[in-house]
Design a protein that fits this description.
Layout (H helix, E strand, L loop, with lengths): L7 H11 L7 H13 L12 H12 L4 H8 L3 H4 L4 H8 L1 H12 L8 H18 L2 H15 L6 H21 L3 H15 L1 H13 L1 H21 L5 E4 L4 H11 L10 E7 L2 H14 L1 E9 L12 E6 L5 E8 H9 L1 H4 L10 H19 L3 H13 L2 E5 L5 E5 L4 H8 L1 H5 L1 E6 L2 E3 L11 E5 L9 H4 L3 H14 L1 H17 L3 H6 L5 H7 L5 H9 L5 H8 L9 H8 L15 E3 L7 E3 L11 E5 L5 E5 L3 H9 L4 E6 L8 E10 L4 H11 L3 E9 L4 E10 L2 H12 L4 E7 L10
Parallel strand pairs: 2-5, 12-14
Antiparallel strand pairs: 1-2, 3-4, 4-5, 6-7, 8-9, 8-10, 11-15, 13-14, 13-15, 16-18, 16-19, 17-18
Length: about 725
């Protein structure tokens, strides 16, 4: 259903209600600027485009965002969708509005090969933007909410992709920032798109019993209101609606059907003061029978996103369970609007506990950004932090530390400091020694014991819940074997050099190793050797960059003619590829070893000297280097029609806990995927870690990615990823 049209005068009035000192002309000026910029643009549903930024601004006004953020919301699409330059926005509205608009624009300008890669990259950019100004993310959340409300004109696959990203990324992010007003609707709209049958089933069942429930809730409100009047406590009492997706989640979590849900009724009591909260709690428990173990005090121990409230569950009228939430007016504002409402109190005064918690969380995310270059690993670790519930513990000095539920001593130690974590030898909880696999309970007092000889092991990864601590342990383990890996990489490069003919070997510019390392965005020679040792860069790729600048006398046309008639039989079957080329059909083609392209990858071709056409992934760094030197030798390609029997060799490298039966377990997963293993090798390393290298036959990139995802989810696997092909021996133990 299309939202009613919003006019700028209404929006301005809403904002000035909460911000009476705001410039009364700021929002009208921003609206006029955006209206002129967007001109006659229409949305897919036919409405004038200007209604979209107006609705986004309206959503921000509903959660009491400041006028600067609302102005930026009105302008958030003008840089991306019109010729307007950021400098024009700054000249008209100032540097802060420009920064916010540019921040939102940068979150939109990216294309990716896979949906997950796009999610990971976008989420990384959002967190970086959040570190600068959280209002960028508030605008983006409001933008996504209005887009979710207006999904209908899009094709089904686009609606589902947007809804999936909303459910997995945007709704948890809204929850983490405390903007429950956005979270609930984002979840319900995504649920409706992804599972329309399930959504409508719950909707119809709720509708069927609504009249009876509303009557019970009305009577409960009247009974409680009478008791509060007698106690001279002023309060607003309202029925609290249960949201469809939360009902669905509870049904899934508890494996029950709708008819067995016991708490569809809920009350919310809003009072003036914290003492009133506890007074009301006593009255509620006197009026109705409290249910054991169904009480939570988030007033004394707020959630990390700032949420405060008393939660209790009672046996209400007719013996039906009923939830009651009790909070002050200010707690209610923060509960519904989160960091958006909190912004009003940011300037002046000391940082609140909420400020400190958000800053600590952002610091963890910045550490992940610094030390986890892999998009997929970053996404999984951040998802863990977004979805985890929290547990609150104390240091010996009574400082509160919030950790993911299930966390233990190692999570705590790394939260204190990396060095404390790396040398953690034990822990005391409430004065008693506990093992490192102990899981904290709310209110535990924790003391960490350190020892110079203690250090992380692979087993620690099983005991740690938090993403930041996991990242630090993995970094330590990688650094531990780095010296050995540097030696392996140096030897691999030396072997590759020795295999060259004497004239080519003598022509190599070995003094340029540092320059070559920097061409891979690596610091120095050692970093280059380490990358070779880890299998991230092939020695042959380095040799290509060490070759002297080409001085060949032949033209490209002469080069093409010199190998146009090469027999395809001279090319190994695993290297053949079916591609369609512009004006060079008939050339012998082979897949480049440096990037190992597979059907489904964007590709380009490099016309080699006497060896046919080398097919590279379009993002191959080696190809980019060649393109800069010899752009005339690079051709656009696309994959041709694949035959049913066509398969391609691809390599996968896994790092896992070394144990008996490990290789058998891994190969079973490959077999269950219907794929053939061409070769496998296992190398045992320090610390009971094994590196497994598989070469498998796959049809395309999507099939390879599915296999890597399955392997990555095995319990003893620390990491799994596709790597460039290289010679691999048979398995050995």
């Amino acid at each position: 259903m299309r939202a009613p049209a919003l006019v700028i005068s209404d929006l301005n009035r809403i904002v000035r209600k909460y911000w009476p000192a705001a410039d009364p002309e700021l929002l009208p000026r921003a609206y006029r600027f955006a209206d002129v910029a967007h001109g006659d643009q229409k949305r897919l549903d036919g409405t004038p485009y200007i209604q979209h930024p107006l609705q986004v601004g309206g959503l921000l006004a509903e959660v009491e965002s400041d006028p600067t953020a609302v102005a930026a919301a009105l302008l958030h699409d003008v840089v991306e969708d019109t010729p307007t330059r950021p400098e024009e926005i700054e000249a008209e509205f100032g540097g802060t509005v420009r920064t916010l608009v540019e921040g939102v624009t940068k979150l939109s300008l990216a294309n990716f090969r896979t949906r997950e890669e796009g999610q990971a990259h976008n989420l990384r950019k959002m967190f970086l933007a959040m570190a600068d100004d959280v209002r960028v993310i508030l605008i983006k959340l409001a933008d996504r909410l209005h887009n979710m409300r207006t999904l209908e004109p899009l094709e089904a696959h686009r609606r589902e992709a947007i809804a999936e990203e909303t459910l997995h990324i945007y709704a948890p992010l809204a929850h983490r920032l405390g903007v429950r007003r956005f979270k609930w609707e984002l979840e319900d709209l995504a649920f409706k798109t992804l599972d329309p049958a399930g959504f409508h089933d719950i909707s119809s069942r709720i509708g069927a019993g609504r009249a009876e429930r509303e009557a019970v809730v009305a009577q409960a409100i009247a009974d409680l209101q009478e008791q509060l009047r007698e106690a001279d406590i002023g309060a607003k009492i309202e029925g609290r609606p249960k949201h469809f997706f939360s009902i669905y989640q509870k049904m899934q979590r508890q494996s029950i059907d709708f008819d067995h849900l016991g708490d569809l009724m809920a009350l919310r009591v809003i009072v003036e003061s914290v003492p009133d909260c506890y007074s009301v709690l006593g009255i509620v428990h006197k009026l109705w029978i409290p249910i054991t173990d169904q009480f939570s005090d988030y007033v004394a121990k707020p959630k990390p996103n700032g949420y405060q409230s008393l939660h209790t569950k009672v046996v209400g009228l007719n013996g039906q369970p009923m939830e009651v939430q009790i909070r002050t007016r200010e707690m209610h504002r923060v509960a519904e609007h989160g960091i958006a409402a909190h912004w009003r109190y940011k300037e002046g005064g000391q940082p609140s506990r909420f400020d400190e918690q958000m800053m600590a969380w952002m610091e963890q995310l910045r550490e992940l950004e610094d030390h986890l270059p892999d998009e997929h690993e970053w996404l999984e670790l951040v998802r863990l932090d977004l979805f985890k519930d929290q547990v609150f513990v104390f240091t010996p000095n009574w400082d509160v530390i919030d950790l993911p539920a299930g966390a233990g001593p190692l999570d705590f130690a790394y939260r204190i400091h990396t060095d404390v974590g790396n040398h953690c030898a034990g822990a005391k909880v409430n004065g008693k020694l506990v093992s490192l696999d102990y899981q904290f309970r709310n209110g535990d007092i924790v003391e960490i014991t350190t020892h110079a000889g203690a250090h992380p092991t692979v087993d620690w990864l099983k005991l740690i819940v938090g993403s930041g601590a996991k990242s630090k342990v993995r970094r330590y383990l990688r650094d531990q074997v780095r010296d050995e890996t540097i030696g392996v990489g140096r030897e691999a490069l030396e072997r590759a050099v020795r295999r060259l003919p004497p004239d080519e070997r003598s022509a190599l510019r070995m003094d340029d190793l540092v320059q070559v390392a920097r061409s891979f965005n690596l610091r120095d020679e050692e970093a280059l050797f380490a990358a070779i040792g880890f299998g991230e860069i092939e020695p042959e790729t380095v040799l290509i960059r060490l070759q002297p600048e080409p001085q060949g006398p032949r033209t490209i046309a002469e080069e093409i003619e010199s190998f146009r008639d090469l027999e395809a039989s001279n090319i190994a079957p695993a290297a053949r590829a079916s591609v369609t080329m512009g004006d060079i059909d008939g050339l012998a083609a082979r897949r480049a070893k440096c990037c190992n392209p597979l059907p489904g990858d964007p590709i380009r071709g490099y016309i080699t000297r006497g060896e046919g056409l080398a097919i590279h992934r379009a993002d191959c760094k080696n190809l980019q280097h060649r393109t800069a030197l010899e752009p005339e030798r690079v051709q656009d390609l696309r994959w041709g029609q694949q035959r049913a029997a066509d398969t391609y060799r691809a390599s996968i490298e896994l790092v896992a806990l070394d144990r008996v039966g490990l290789l058998a377990h891994i190969t079973a997963v490959v077999s269950e995927s219907g794929l053939n293993i061409a070769s496998a090798a296992v190398d045992a390393e320090k610390g009971n870690v094994a590196t497994i290298r598989l070469v498998v036959d796959v049809e395309n990139r999507a099939e390879l990615n599915r296999l890597v995802d399955r392997l990555r989810n095995l319990i003893d696997v620390i990491d799994a990823r596709a790597v460039p092909n290289r010679a691999t021996s048979s398995a050995r133990r």
